[in-house]
């Protein structure tokens, strides 16, 4: 069975011999050939060269051609901040000053789309037995890129505008989908990190109809779909299933064993959720093997299953760790022997926490995957920075990104369980849900 056949069977809920292996290579592919994130996200020849190398090393059943949720936003007028080892982040929001609905359409000639399509064409023969995923920015995250942090307050103050904005971004998502389907992508994966930052009630009120429309559109065009959400979207797994995607991918914030009980109920395939930093980036080959074997052992039903990183892998993820993941999937019993005497190694990093009880002013701590690369983290940190503009020197604010070992140790010591989240004076205030300006103000005022 080829990788493409295995992915197709899982998407169609047919019986499989093994779970499919989907490494979300993202900008990491560039590291294999010495190219920066910006180079591989703007240059087809460099992206192609990098993906061919990733394909050779990791032998995937499926893989994305490009993992950049800012392609659509850039076309629609958002300015981007580029980084050497991470995807770009959105720095301006065209609809932030007024509640505008744009009239821009996306075509195959727009922005960086020609580069993506050229790369796909280059890969079709080189990776003909691999399912190629077309990644599109989900309509809610795209709406957030256009509107900025005010979108969360709009849900309370102006629900009509949210529906108008969502109708527009869903139209854009369908345009991207049609372009990618016509070009020959095998799977359309809708990646919407911000879904984890709202309640299931808000999902049903503002998002359900639009995601259902989008997944229906993909199905009508005879392609399978993925619904990719970052952060702790546990409360939204069921409402996501009801929009009828073929599959749902999730990150390390979600208990995949518990989530699969829900996805199995709706006959939706599930994928995930190897931790990006603590295991893939900073762990050993044995750490990665242990996680995969442990996950497979905990899952009673191994049908309808993809194994993948929790999101696109960090740029500097060691190649040997990724190879170890594939080995654990395809040679599970022999790997079980390799890790029979496995013991996790403690890095021994000591961190000193502030004396929270005796602070002179409120300390707002924002724990993130990385606000420069994770959309949910960007908007969580944005809420904190907006508060800093209001309070000035009356408060302090710090961000702790999990991409650094010392911050992983800090997160463990504080007791953080889900990212992104906000603590004030060492006490959890908001976890995987972005506060409105008023909600954050009330929380801060309690400490002044």
Descriptors:
alpha/beta; TIM Barrel; Glutaredoxin; 8-stranded parallel sheet; 19 helices; 4-stranded mixed sheet; 448 residues
Task: Walk me through the structure.
By secondary structure, this protein is of the alpha/beta class. It folds into 2 domains: 3-338, TIM Barrel (Alpha-Beta Barrel); 356-445, Glutaredoxin. The chain has 19 helices and 14 strands. The protein has helices at 3-11, 28-31, 37-42, 44-58, 71-75, 113-126, 139-147, 150-157, 159-183, 200-220, 237-241, 256-265, 276-281, 285-298, 319-330, 332-338, 375-391, 405-414, 437-445, and strands spanning 20-21, 62-64, 80-81, 89-90, 131-137, 187-191, 225-229, 247-250, 269-274, 305-309, 363-368, 396-401, 421-424, 427-431. The chain has an 8-stranded parallel sheet with strand order 1-10-9-8-7-6-5-2, sandwiched between helices. The chain has a 4-stranded mixed sheet with strand order 12-11-13-14, with helices on both faces. Helix 10 (200-220) links the parallel strand 6 (187-191) and strand 7. Helix 4 packs parallel to helix 6, helix 7 (139-147) crosses helix 9 and helix 9 (159-183) runs parallel beside helix 10 (200-220). The longest helix is centred in the middle third of the chain and has 25 residues, at 159-183. The N and C termini lie far apart (63 Å).
What's a concise summary of this model?
By secondary structure, the protein is α/β, with parallel strands linked by helices. The protein has helices spanning 3-11, 28-31, 37-42, 44-58, 71-75, 113-126, 139-147, 150-157, 159-183, 200-220, 237-241, 256-265, 276-281, 285-298, 319-330, 332-338, 375-391, 405-414, 437-445; strands at residues 20-21, 62-64, 80-81, 89-90, 131-137, 187-191, 225-229, 247-250, 269-274, 305-309, 363-368, 396-401, 421-424, 427-431.
């Amino acid at each position: 069975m080829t990788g493409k056949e295995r992915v197709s069977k899982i998407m169609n809920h047919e019986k499989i011999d093994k779970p499919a292996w989907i490494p979300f290579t993202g900008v990491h592919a560039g590291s294999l050939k010495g190219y920066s994130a910006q180079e591989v996200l703007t240059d087809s020849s460099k992206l192609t060269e990098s993906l061919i190398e990733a394909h050779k090393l990791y032998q995937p059943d499926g893989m994305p051609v490009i993992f950049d949720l800012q392609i659509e936003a850039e076309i629609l007028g958002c300015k981007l901040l580029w980084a050497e080892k991470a995807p770009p982040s959105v720095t301006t929001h065209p609809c932030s000053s007024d509640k505008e609905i744009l009239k821009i359409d996306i075509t195959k000639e727009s922005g960086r789309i020609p580069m993506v399509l050229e790369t796909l064409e280059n890969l079709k023969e080189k990776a003909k037995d691999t399912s190629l995923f077309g990644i599109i920015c989900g309509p809610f995250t795209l709406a957030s890129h256009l509107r900025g942090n005010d979108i969360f307050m709009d849900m309370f103050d102006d629900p009509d505008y949210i529906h108008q904005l969502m109708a527009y971004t869903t139209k854009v998502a369908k345009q991207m989908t049609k372009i990618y389907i016509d070009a020959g992508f095998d799977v359309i994966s809708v990646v919407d990190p911000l879904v984890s930052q709202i309640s299931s009630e808000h999902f049903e009120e503002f998002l359900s109809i639009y995601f259902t429309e989008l997944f229906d559109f993909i199905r009508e065009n005879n392609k399978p779909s993925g619904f990719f959400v970052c952060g702790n979207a546990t409360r939204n797994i069921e409402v996501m299933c009801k929009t009828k995607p073929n599959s749902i991918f999730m990150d390390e914030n979600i208990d995949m064993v518990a989530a699969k009980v829900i996805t199995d109920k709706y006959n939706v395939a599930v994928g995930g959720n190897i931790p990006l930093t603590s295991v893939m980036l900073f762990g050993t080959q044995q750490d990665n093997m242990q996680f995969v074997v442990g996950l497979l052992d905990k899952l009673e039903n191994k049908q309808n299953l993809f194994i993948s990183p929790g999101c696109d892998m960090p740029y500097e993820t060691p190649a040997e760790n990724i190879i170890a993941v594939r080995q654990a999937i395809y040679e599970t019993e022999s790997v079980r022997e390799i890790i029979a005497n496995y013991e996790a190694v403690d890095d021994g990093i000591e961190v000193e926490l502030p004396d929270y009880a005796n602070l002179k002013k409120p300390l707002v701590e924002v724990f993130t995957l990385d606000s420069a690369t994770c959309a949910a983290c960007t908007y969580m940190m944005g809420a904190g920075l907006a508060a800093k503009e209001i309070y000035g020197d009356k408060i302090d604010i710090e961000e702790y990104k999990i991409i650094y070992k010392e911050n992983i140790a800090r997160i463990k010591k504080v007791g953080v369980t889900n990212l992104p989240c906000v603590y004030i004076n060492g006490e959890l205030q908001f976890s995987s849900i972005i506060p409105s300006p008023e909600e954050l103000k009330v929380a801060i005022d309690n400490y002044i």
